[in-house]
Amino acid sequence: MINSPVVLEVLGQLVPEALHADAWAVCNGAGWRFVKASDDGEQAPGWRMNLAEVPEFDALWKAAKPLCERLAGRGLRVLRQYACASTDGLACGTHPDDGRPGCFTLLYFPMPQWRAEWQGETTFLNGSGAVLRSVLPQPNQGVFLDSRIAHVDAAPSTAGAELRVTVIFHLEPADESGVGAGGKVDAGAGAGGVRWEEVVEARRGPVHTFRVRIAAGEIAARSAARLVEIGGSLRIPGFRHGQIPMELLSERYGERAQEEVMLALHREVTDALLAQGSLPLTLEDDTSAAPGEVVLRLTATHLPALQEPRPETWSLERWEADGSVIREAGLDPTQVERLLLERLTAQVLDQLDEDYVFPVAEILISRERQMLQRVVEASWNSEDVSPEERSALGEDLKGIAERRVRLGAVVAELARRHRLAPATDPALESKVIAWLLSRANVTTRPVTTRELLAFFGP
């Protein structure tokens, strides 16, 4: 925890207004994904957007860099940059950004307006949990801080608040050795603190495998900090509040603190290495770790590495039904129009299914299959369905679930890549389908009454 003086500065009107407007245009567009809460409740749910190699934010950092380096007293480089967003009811848990001395965080608020009654302040805490400062978001405002300072973002109020967006730049010293050929970061302790080693080991198409080495000092420092946090919430007879000896805390709560640190490290590694839109496959402990250190092996389907679609090579058929055919079939025109569009959409999805084949984590397939099974079983009379039929249904739905997860990821990636719609847009899929259809080879032909009736079924 931090007991010495630290950097915590609020920076008003951080960049020129043109950069501020460009930043908001990006944050107000496509590319958001929703991150669910962790099982242990430490990670709150919320929206995230990866901003790596986004020109508008590269330019924003270039403009803010001289001031940040002057405050830090050294050169800085960006470790990663992304945005978080929340609406009412979505609050962020208390957390520091990095436990290494010499690392800093730049928070930036890109919103064009923010009213005091919308709340959503960021509160910064010292090592004892006391409030250092509370900052209400303001347009084009930054906050530059030592990355070891714990902070928490309050949810915006229900009083008509707009989306609360925070852009985060994780920064580390630019003048320290450690980054070598091949993208390797040397592990070990030094003047700049414990370092992580991140090595891209293999790439098989969109499937990337990483190894992350975390030195023992990092684990020990985080475990000790977690013990201090636990001690601050305890009441033990014979000891004043906040004055419980570390030896006693370690004896009683050391195992719990280390387990919580490891869970947090797993989440942090995933967030640090997975680009926007990637699907995790596995995250496992690697047995090659030296005594005291941790090595994690991460495999993911990296969706930004997927090839571009080639709809101009597709041959699709659009049915058109004139009024006389619809009347002869005795069907509702609105229903016919909707179902013929669904038929064309199904052709597009079949093409995507054929063009994009990559592995999907079993846990994602299982969750989707369970959801589908609940929907199907809700329409059944449970007394008429045997256990064998339920089991067969589960197997049938597994393939459907895998396809839904995979194609959903592809559609979301295309929307992000080409800025077709924000991730929160309910019409995201239809906008992507329309974009693909505008580039596909689509032949239109009249549908006969017999074909129409056969398509609609009995």
Mean pLDDT over the residues: 80
Question: How many distinct beta strands?
Answer: 16
Helix and strand run: EHEEHEEEEEEEEEHHEEEHHHHHEH
Separate helix tally: 10
What is the helical fraction, as a range of percent?
25-40%
Shape: globular
Looking at CATH, which topology of the largest domain would you report? Jelly Rolls
The major pleated sheet works out as: 7 strands, antiparallel
Named at the architecture level, the CATH assignment of the largest domain is: Sandwich
Compute the number of structural domains: 3
Query: What is the CA-atom radius of gyration, in angstroms?
Result: 26 Å
Note the gap between the termini.
70 Å
The chain-level structural class is: alpha+beta
Strand content: 15-25%
Corresponding CATH superfamily of the largest domain: q2cbj1_9rhob like domain
Please identify the top-level CATH class of the largest domain: Mainly Beta
Strand order of the largest sheet: 1-8-5-10-4-3-2
Low-confidence stretches: 1-5, 38-42, 176-195
